[in-house]
Amino acid sequence: MVVLQQAVKAMSGLKEGVDLSVVIPLYNEALTLATLHERLIRTLRSLGSSYEILYVDDGSTDGTAGLLRQLQGQHQEAKVIFLNRNYGQHAAVLAGFERARGEVIVTLDGDLQNPPEEIPKLLQKIREGYDVVGGWREERKDSLLRRLLSAQMSRITSLIVGVKMRDYGCMLRAYRRPVVEQISKSQEAALFIPALANYLARSVAEISVGHEMRESGKSRYNAFRLLRLNFDLLTGFSLLPIQAVSFSGILIAFFGLAFAAFLALRRILIGPEVEGVFTLFAILFFFVGIQILALGLIGEYIARIYMQVRRRPRYVIKEVLG
Ligand code: UDP
Ligand code: MG
User: Fold this and answer.
1) SS (H, E, C) the chain
2) 322 with 80: CB under 8 angstroms?
3) How far apart are the CA of 108 and the centre of ligand 2, in A?
4) 282-289 long-range CB contacts below 8 Å, 24 or more apart?
5) Cα(219) to centroid of ligand 2, in Å?
């Protein structure tokens, strides 16, 4: 009887949807998972509205998958999506988005760097009528280098997307359902969810949220992965980089011409110069560097076209629980 009641409840829930979905990507977060879940449900229960939690296991190799199974068995409101391997944070969030039933969808990191206790603040702002509410890590607990680069990247992203935000890297965010549906529908190969959401949303707000140290393990992003993510962002959202390269090409060619004219004049007036030979080398190296960068950029765009043409799925779901 109880089982039947539960089944009926689950089915009606499926039809009606819920007020809030929380999507959390996890890649080897076994050490924080239990605390995260406990803090999360404490916060969500205090809201007094219906909710679901979607954990997306992004091909973890520690004990995350096993722990998620256990947790799901005990808590009906938790659902788990297992990806068949590691696809990256944004692809994992997307997998959660496509299954989320909430009117509002909140994302946060699974390493407890984003305190779940901040969720009510985001929802408060959503209720004011915004489509997307981003968190801004005012006192961010990451290395200085990372903070500086990230701030710079947020500035560039603001320019590209056309929506100014201090912190594009913060994944503690809330979205209204239509925005999430649009994101799910878009067939972009380049995935940087905050940028895409701001691009699609009518109104966007940003509020300051807390940030904590990573208690266990290191960031799942190394320098290379971060670079790749930012490349995704730059070339995926605008033609600006390639246009900047073309523009600088024109400028440099112009300078080269002026320099040649100067050398010719000098040869006539003073005689040929030999001492400056190494200066010329230096200048040459600079130009060669820019050329290689330009080639790389062109390659990047072509690679993206290739990815799009192949139409490979952005992730593959292995199993869904709950
Ligand atoms: N993550 C993921 N797949 C990845 C890398 C990260 O699902 O390939 C998750 C990770 O488990 C965490 C969140 O994305 O919940 C943010 O990752 P991390 O804390 O390593 O990034 P940082 O805080 O350094 O930006
Ligand atoms: Mg983190």
Assistant:
1) CHHHHHHHHHHHHHHHCEEEEEEEEECCCHHHHHHHHHHHHHHHHCCCCCEEEEEEECCCCCCHHHHHHHHHHHCCCEEEEEECCCCCHHHHHHHHHHHCCEEEEEECCCCCCCCHHHHHHHHHHHHCCCCEEEEEECCCCCCHHHHHHHHHHHHHHHHHHCCCCCCCCCCCEEEEHHHHHHHHHCCCCCCCHHHHHHHHCCCEEEEEECCCCCCCCCCCCCHHHHHHHHHHHHHHHCCHHHHHHHHHHHHHHHHHHHHHHHHHHHHHHCCCCCCCHHHHHHHHHHHHHHHHHHHHHHHHHHHHHHHHHHCCCCCCEEEEEC
2) yes
3) 10
4) 283/259, 287/252, 287/256
5) 6
Residue 88: the pLDDT is: 94
Cut 0.90: pTM above it: no
Angstrom distances, CA of residue 31 to CA of 28, 34, 107: 8, 7, 20
Tally Cβ neighbours within 10 Å of residue 235. Answer: 18
Q: What are phi and psi of 214, to 5 degrees?
A: -75, 115
- Which residue's CA is the nearest one to ligand 1's atom 17? 220
pLDDT of residue 12: 47
* Pocket of ligand 1 from Cβ distances under 6 Å: 25-27, 29, 58, 86, 88-89, 92, 109-111, 113, 219-221
**Listed residues: CB within 5 A of ion ligand 2:** 109, 111, 113
Residue identified by tokens 């760097």 is 113
**Tokens (6 digits) for 268:** 């006539």
Q: What is the 214 CA–ligand 2 centroid distance (Å)?
A: 6
- Residue segments in the chain with a per-residue pLDDT below the cut of 50: 8, 12-13
- Atom of ligand 1 at shortest distance to CA of 92? 7
Give residue 250's pLDDT.
86
**Alpha carbon of 28 to ligand 1 centroid (Å):** 9
